[in-house]
Amino acid sequence: MLGFLSARQAGLDDPLHLRRAESTRRVLGLELNKDRDVERIHGSGVNTLDIEPVEGRYMLSGGSDGVIVLYDLENSSRQPYYTCKAVCSVGRSHPDVHKYSVETVQWYPHDTGMFTSSSFDKTLKIWDTNTLQTADVFHFEETVYSHHMSPVATKHCLVAVGTRGPKVQLCDLKSGSCSHILQGHRQEILAVSWSPRYEFILATARSGKSRQRRYKFNVINYLKRVNYGKICNDSRKGLKFTVSCGCSSEFVFVPYGSTIAVYTVYSGEQITMLKGHYKSVDCCVFQPNFQELYSGSRDCNILAWIPALYEPVPDDNEATAKSQLNPAFEDAWSSSDEEG
Amino acid sequence: MDQRLSVLVEDLTTSGEPQLDPEKMKELKKICKSSEEQLRHAYHLLMTQLTQEHAEVRLSAFQVVAALFTRSHQFRLLVVSNFQEFLELTLGTDHEQPLPPPREVAQKLRRAAIQAVEAWNEKFGEAYKKLALGYHFLRHNKQVDFQDINARTLAERKREAEKQRRLDSIYRERAKQAGAEMEEMSEEVRSCLTEVESCFQLLVPFDFATSPGVPGEDAFPSTSLCPAAPGLQDEELPCCSKDLPAFPLPLQADDGSGDLSDEEQDEFVRSHGLGSHKYMLGLELHPGDVVLQETEDNRAVVHSARDALKLIRNKFLPSVCSWVQLFTRAGIHDQRLRRAIELKTELEAAVRKYKELNIKPQEGPGRLTTFLEDGSEDEEEEFVEVPEKEGYEPHIPDHLRTEYGLDPPAAPVQILKKDPPEGLVAQGVHLRTRTRRDEEASDPTSAAAQLRLLRDRLPPPASTSSSQEPDEAQKLAAERARAPVVPFGVDLCYWGQEQPVTGKILKADSQHRFWKPSEVDEEVDNADVSEMLRSRHITFAGRFEPVQHRCRALRPDGRLCERQDRLKCPFHGKIVPRDDQGQPLNPEDRAREQRQQLQRQTEHPDWQDPEFMRDVEAAAGVDLGSSRCSGKGKGKGKKRKYPNLTDLKKQADTARARIGKKVFDKAAVRRVVTAMNQMDQKKHEKFANQFNYALN
């Protein structure tokens, strides 16, 4: 760290170097921290999370009871301990609430004024964040597993929707209707995703099978395939994994039962497992600005994984150092040897 | 040190005791304290023990963990880092892997774990986030009630509540029914009670209701005491006899003896016809002596009271009791319950009164039922009305007299004179037959009875026996005794008769008007047929001779075989003469037997494969002799690794398991299968000529 800093001071290094090194270190040090809590709003499992890409401040969560909650992640209290407050929520009493489990929530990529949510009640809803009311509703014939908006698209405003049927539908937000139907799958579509670099590439997948269909308009994207090994997925739904951002070698966080497995993206090597949930994890999302990871599980918890701080360097007089520690961390061995 | 640690952990966890051994625990703690390395090692050892499929092992391991958890931060970190698994293993939070048997210990482990988790959360929850999360998870997701003593989960509680609710509704329904029934029946009960009450009133004219308190040992001294007399009077008068009207008078005399003057006394004595006034009148009274004599006068009343009582005891009282029970069980404490209880007390009072009355049955030629009923009112229910024949036999047949403990009747002198058709039979009739006939004669439907009737009507024939000489009679009797008894047959029927008709075949001549067959014998004498009428075929199958000899082969337990087969013992083969040691007497037999034994030893049947036998023995816990079979086997395997733990396999020794072992035995199953196959086959044979059955 200090070496990087001095090199940066001397102008020897690219500014990106320091940033990459530091963020990689932080990602590798992710752990469950007692200083960060997420308010418990959900009464049932958390299916989906999304952090808005503009500021990285607000997080949406969709529960399996149809509830959508909006969290403020920023700690403005100047205290180390912080509980992420729920800013607002679409509860069961809300008139426009989803009837069944919310499967995907996504912010509008360019603005926090709008977000989308799709649910098992066969609808895709477009929400106005400020009034928290639906701006538009798309109805489908089958339950919706997933939807996605292109994060980079500027020329179109299409939402790709994967349902239980074998067709991928593209909904145009401008016109408010389904503009395309893409066929190619034979079974349900559990995941859809636009390419993060190119405007017109869409990948869709069935879970389990590494069957990826690229729907291309102009450019053919070279997709490198990495075998990450077997990922256990006993649910019938898609899992939402996430990729870190801004590290020297990127990491992928994949829900793995009740743990989260961390792999390197390019080599597929498993780095570690994050244990903390008590039931299977459904989704996780990475906050790139502070290298934080949020994960939602069926045990109703949203856990925040925060980079570990530096251990305070033990001073010369250990007594003072120990006294600053939490008393719970002290050992309680009885002093006399006979007692044991 | 490492070895010591693992040995300690194993000892502690496999002790099977509900509490840990403090000495070993101290040692373990000392080792753990010494270094973090040891602590980590101990943690892994304990987690391994926690995964054992035995609740006692888990409980002990959990206790060790709990002891270390409060001590060491490092250990806490280790446990908390894997808290999910820890909860699964100690609480059974994962319903796919419940806690292992035995169940009581598992329950205990669960309770202990829940208490521990709560205590840990209270103490360390702030510092260890995962601990707090786990506590929260248990509390809100698993909905474990930490106050609940049984640590039941929500589902269990729900099930329990559901069951309770169902039971409640059933009880309520029943109570409702009972209420309706009571409404219907109370009228009847009331009238019955009134009837009984009035019967009592008639039988016992004074107020009987107050008396139940009086009869007690204290109030009834055995010797007469004057002050007690007025109290007694009530009791005594109706019960003992009504012809003691002057009962109180002597008492008065006794009472006032000191005050009376001599003349008065004399007069008193004289007027009562007493010799002196120094008499003491001893009056013995027992509370149980209140006896009501059933007489001609009160018979009707007594009977009606008895009938009503019977009704009460057999019908009303049980139903009232069941109502009370139903009401209390349904939690109904209103008017209905009170009424039911009132009814019950009244009915019981009536029954008690009747018992106290102690009605004596009418003596003499009373009905049989009365006889049975009275004297044992309490055991009345035990008697069942039976037809008269069972207990009462007006005529005991002679041959049964000894059984009944009666003297045999006077030796039958007169031999019955038989009627002509019976005469032939009577020739060979033994005394025994006669008695049977006597027996039959008591049955009015039998032929013998008719015979007797006939005989009675006829004038007595001249006695044959009297005319004969006594020695001749004796000879005759001896001959009769020797004569064989044969069942009656056709030959006896035509005994000594020449039957011209029988044995001849009559050929009917043709009835045709014109056509006539050639002359034939109209009668053919058939010797065979006539012979058949006079002869009797007796098949002689020989007499059964019981087997006297025994097999006497040496059995493995040292005794000799006791089987008495005629030719061949199923276990030891052909029966040959043997000596006291069970060895055959003939040398060739002996040689043969030895040869067979050798052969048997060398070859084991294939099911006695030593490996398999050892498995079976381990499963059944019985020595089947596998060690004997395998000559150089490694002996009987290890006894049991941890003798202190409850044997999980042994616990399957319930009645169900035992029956199951029999029923699901391979041989039994095979038998059933063959039997069912046979049945199927039979069905096919039956319908084999129908093509659709024949095909399959």
TrEMBL record, chain A:
Keyword Transferase: no
InterPro entries hit by this protein: Rad28/ERCC8/Ckn1/ATCSA-1 (IPR042238), WD40/YVTN_repeat-like_dom_sf (IPR015943), WD40_repeat_dom_sf (IPR036322), WD40_rpt (IPR001680)
Start-end of each WD repeat: 39-81, 95-137, 274-305
Keyword terms, alphabetized: WD repeat
Gene Ontology biological-process entries: proteasome-mediated ubiquitin-dependent protein catabolic process; protein polyubiquitination; transcription-coupled nucleotide-excision repair
GO cellular component: Cul4A-RING E3 ubiquitin ligase complex; nucleotide-excision repair complex
SUPFAM superfamilies for this protein: WD40 repeat-like
Domain of life: Eukaryota
PROSITE patterns, sorted: WD_REPEATS_2, WD_REPEATS_REGION
Name of the protein described by the UniProt record: DNA excision repair protein ERCC-8
Annotated source species: Chrysochloris asiatica
Gene coding for it: ERCC8
From TrEMBL, chain B:
Stretches assigned to the UV-stimulated scaffold protein A C-terminal domain: 482-586
A biological process term (GO) from this entry: response to UV
Top-rank lineage group of the source organism: Eukaryota
Gene3D superfamilies xref list: 1.25.40.90
Molecular function, one GO term: zinc ion binding
Region span, Disordered: 458-479, 572-611
Record keywords: Chromosome, Coiled coil, DNA damage, DNA repair, Metal-binding, Zinc, Zinc-finger
Annotated signal sequence range: none
Cellular-component GO terms for this entry: chromosome
Localization: Chromosome
Start-end of Basic and acidic residues biased regions: 576-611
SUPFAM superfamilies recorded: ENTH/VHS domain (SSF48464)
Pfam families on file: DUF2043, UVSSA_N
InterPro entries, sorted: ENTH_VHS (IPR008942), UVSSA (IPR018610), UVSSA_C (IPR049431), UVSSA_N_a-solenoid_rpt (IPR049408)
Family of this protein: Belongs to the UVSSA family.
Protein name: UV-stimulated scaffold protein A
Species: Chrysochloris asiatica (Cape golden mole)
